[in-house]
Design brief:
This protein is an alpha+beta fold and about 775 residues long. It folds into six domains: about 5-90, Roll (Ubiquitin-like (UB roll)), CATH 3.10.20.310; about 95-170, membrane protein fhac (Ubiquitin-like (UB roll), Roll), CATH 3.10.20; about 175-260, Ubiquitin-like (UB roll); about 265-345, Roll (Ubiquitin-like (UB roll)); about 350-420, membrane protein fhac (Ubiquitin-like (UB roll)); about 475-485 and about 500-760, Porin (Beta Barrel). It has 13 helices and 35 strands. About 30% of the residues are buried.
Length: about 775
């Protein structure tokens, strides 16, 4: 047998064959020990066939060809007359790859992913060594230093082998101090804000604080990040050295030094835009820019301005716009003049829309929300709206739409989505002196089986409430502009003086208009059997009485939504107006206060929310929100509005800090009677706590007023309340979770307050 190196095989072949391979021809070729290649394929790989001359050069070349396939540990050739017999010893197959010493389950699987070796591959010592180095690099990127990885193998049968990577993670380096030598104009917190390696914060173990763990593989890039931060503050001449990390290997604490030369700070001089596109107004473009004359130069805003210009020019059909900034810097006056040179390229049309990443969601569901189709002229605004529309569905964690050039005037749109969990268990709750512990939950899926259908099964349970609901919404019936929804519910709520008992259903059909608008019409039916509690006062008996009636309703609504995300919008507006006309049918035991009996009524409700991200203006991810809600019930004089149809206020969605349904106009004895007009408003400011944990902190102020139309015999005062507090907003794997800490600002005697509430799911 020949030795296992290719060189030794070649030498052996020359020695063995050189003496008798003289003008002899191949009459037959045999292969022994093949598993991964068929004989037919092996003959093609060999490069030598029947009738060819048998020479040392030909045979050595064929051996090289077999080794290049990567399947074999050893290949050698025997000759019997004109017959060549190729013998193969194939590499072992990898039966399993495992990791020890580093977590378990998903943690280990994530670490093994991407190391270049997996189950089913052929064992190769060089690839195993490369995989070991990759594992060490991955662990170093997580902050581990002095990592050691030992590799052990175990035979599995005669043709396979199992590999185990035994990891000793070593220690994590903690950066205790960052030194920016020469930095005078910028604070340390500003300089290191965007760095991968940061100084450890006080209480760094908390999720939204920095723990100081070093990312060794990012050190070389941090110097560029420091330079970029200076350019965001106008220091165009700043120079930053490579970082020097000094590690104490006794404690694995580190100190990082940068040498900084700041230079002068520049302001914006003249801003010009050069283009030759018909219909594109330069003054309009200049007004859109974030950089303004006289302001401090900011490289980040300049990049955003370039993107704005590219999008605006893209609305004219140019998909490959190039905007090149010419920067004329004057060191003496500390002024920089900018001239944006617009190179539009050729206008293009869409050839195809290619969707990827939607493992569950069907392609046709994704296409519903893309406003560009094959054959359309490219339009940057349509592209942006498509991305926002996909974001509003709540189906995807991220959406990216890129263009792929096919020819000079044609492109493909590559729609890449990353799906998020749409089947969730949403929950909320709180505690109050009246309700006790309250829990509400719903099992829902906004994208049932990837079809875009929205289904919900929900319940609410507390000491005083037991409510159930089942809903079904199809936002795009047969992929059309029409929608349909069906809802069934059962509600039982024990108020202080009466018990509400309702069974109802509704059906609505809608249609989308003008991209952001949606209108719908519907009908509903309610069977209400509310009763007065036995211990209710006489005035309650007279004013509230037993509400036992049936209600048939007609609905009409108009909805507007141009926000950019379902869970955390940073721009746009949501607005909803709904009208309900209700006809009541029922007998009441006492109508002495309202001799006209039950009356048909009109209920008008409206909601609006504005969302504005401030990052483009202040370079900080601050989100401002303003929300308003209004509801009014009107009927003819002398007719009764049942208590179950009246309005109450308090809790999430109105005035936080007060228990749900705890605020309404009251009788003289303090009993709640419900209102006919309700208004509330909210302002919020949300800031990031931890991007990695997807946590934010929002401060809020709520104000609400609820009133009732004058009674023929009883004077009832309006109720106004306000509150302030903070919300911990967490985009968890189970859906959005809000932990609410509220403080009532104008609590009155008899109010039911709730300092803490939580909610799971989105709130308008």
């Amino acid at each position: 047998m020949v030795k296992k190196t290719l060189f030794s095989k070649i030498v052996f072949s020359w020695m063995l064959l050189g003496s008798f391979l003289l003008a002899q021809k191949v009459t037959q070729i045999k292969f022994e020990g093949l598993a991964h290649l068929s004989p037919t394929t092996a003959k093609e790989v060999a490069g030598i066939g029947v009738g060819d001359e048998i020479t040392a050069e030909n045979i050595n070349e064929s051996i090289k060809n077999f080794f290049s396939q990567g399947y074999f540990q050893d290949v050698w050739v025997d000759q019997k007359g004109g017959t060549l017999i190729y013998h193969f010893k194939e590499k072992l197959a990898i039966a399993n790859v495992d990791i020890k010493g580093y977590g378990s389950g998903d943690d280990g699987e994530k670490l093994l992913a991407g190391i270049g070796i997996k189950k089913g591959d052929l064992y190769d010592n060089r690839r195993v060594k490369k995989a070991t180095r990759t594992l060490i690099s991955k662990l170093e990127s997580q902050g581990y230093y002095d990592t050691v990885v030992d590799v052990t193998t175990k035979p599995v049968g005669q043709s396979s082998i199992a590999i185990v990577f035994d990891v000793n993670k070593g220690e994590k380096i903690t950066i205790k101090k960052m030194n920016f030598v020469g930095a005078k104009e910028l604070d340390k917190s500003d300089i290191q804000a965007e760095l991968a390696n940061k100084e450890e914060d006080t209480l760094g173990w908390m999720p939204w604080r920095n723990n100081g763990e070093a990312a060794v593989d990012q050190l070389e890039y941090d110097a560029h990040r420091v330079k970029n931060t200076y350019m965001e503050h106008g220091y165009l001449d700043a120079k930053v050295s490579k970082p020097l990390m000094r590690v104490d290997f006794g404690s694995y604490n580190a100190e990082v030094d940068y040498q900084v030369v700041e230079g002068a700070q520049y302001r914006i001089g003249k801003i010009e835009i050069t283009h030759q596109i018909d219909g594109l107004k330069t003054n309009k473009l200049r007004d859109m820019l974030l950089l303004k004359e006289g302001k401090i130069f900011n490289i980040k805003r300049m990049r955003k301005d370039i993107k704005k210009l590219e999008e605006e020019v893209g609305n004219f059909g140019f998909a490959y716009v190039k905007v090149a900034p010419q920067m004329n810097k004057n060191p003496e006056s500390k002024v920089i003049n900018l001239n944006y040179i617009v190179q539009p390229g050729e206008p293009v049309t869409i050839k195809d829309v290619i969707i990827s990443g939607n493992d569950t969601t069907k392609d046709r569901v994704v296409r519903r929300y893309i406003y560009l189709a094959p054959g359309d002229k490219f339009n940057a605004r349509d592209l942006k709206d498509s991305k926002a529309a996909l974001g509003r569905t709540g189906f995807f964690e991220s959406v990216d739409i890129q263009s792929e050039r096919i020819s000079e005037d044609e492109i493909n749109l590559l729609v890449k989505v990353k799906e998020t969990s749409t089947g969730t268990i949403s929950a909320g709750g709180g505690y109050g002196s009246f309700e006790g512990l309250m829990v509400n939950a719903s099992v829902s899926d906004r994208n049932l089986f990837g079809s875009g259908l929205n289904t919900t099964l929900g319940f609410e349970i507390s000491r005083v409430a037991t409510n159930y609901n089942l809903s079904f919404i199809n936002p795009k019936v047969w992929d059309s502009m029409y929608s349909m929804s069906v809802n069934f519910y059962k509600r039982d709520y024990q108020f202080i003086d009466y018990t509400q008992d309702q069974l109802g259903a509704s059906l609505s059909i809608g249609r989308e208009f003008y991209r952001y608008f949606h209108a719908s019409l519907g009908v509903g039916y309610v069977d209400n059997q509310s009763t007065i509690n036995d211990d209710a006062t006489n005035i309650i008996q007279e004013f509230l009485y037993n509400d036992q009636y049936k209600k048939a309703s007609a609905f009409a609504s108009l909805n507007y939504d141009n926000t950019d995300d379902f869970y955390m919008p940073r721009e746009g507006m949501k607005a909803l107006v709904n009208f309900e006309y209700a006809q009541l049918d029922g007998d009441d035991v006492n109508l002495s206060v309202f001799p006209g009996g039950y009356g048909n009524f009109m209920k008008t409700s409206a909601r609006v929310g504005f969302y504005y991200g401030m990052e483009d203006i202040i370079d900080y991810d601050l989100i401002l929100r303003a929300k308003g809600r209004f509801t009014h019930i009107s009927t003819t004089d002398g007719e009764k509005i049942p208590t179950a149809e009246r309005l109450f206020m308090g809790g999430v969605g109105s005035v936080r800090g007060f228990n749900p349904f705890s605020l309404s106009p009251k009788l003289a004895d303090g009993s709640l009677v419900g209102g006919t007009t309700r208004m509330s408003g909210t302002v919020e400011a949300s800031i990031p706590l931890s991007k990695a944990a997807k946590m934010r902190l929002a401060a809020f102020y709520d104000y609400g007023v609820i009133s009732i139309d004058p009674s023929p015999t009883i004077d009832i005062d309006n109720v106004a309340r306000s509150s302030a507090g903070v919300v911990l907003e967490w985009q968890s794997a189970f859906g959005p979770i809000n932990l609410i800490f509220a403080y009532p600002l104008d609590e009155q005697v008899g109010d039911n307050t709730a300092v803490f509430e939580f909610a799971m799911g989105t709130q308008f």
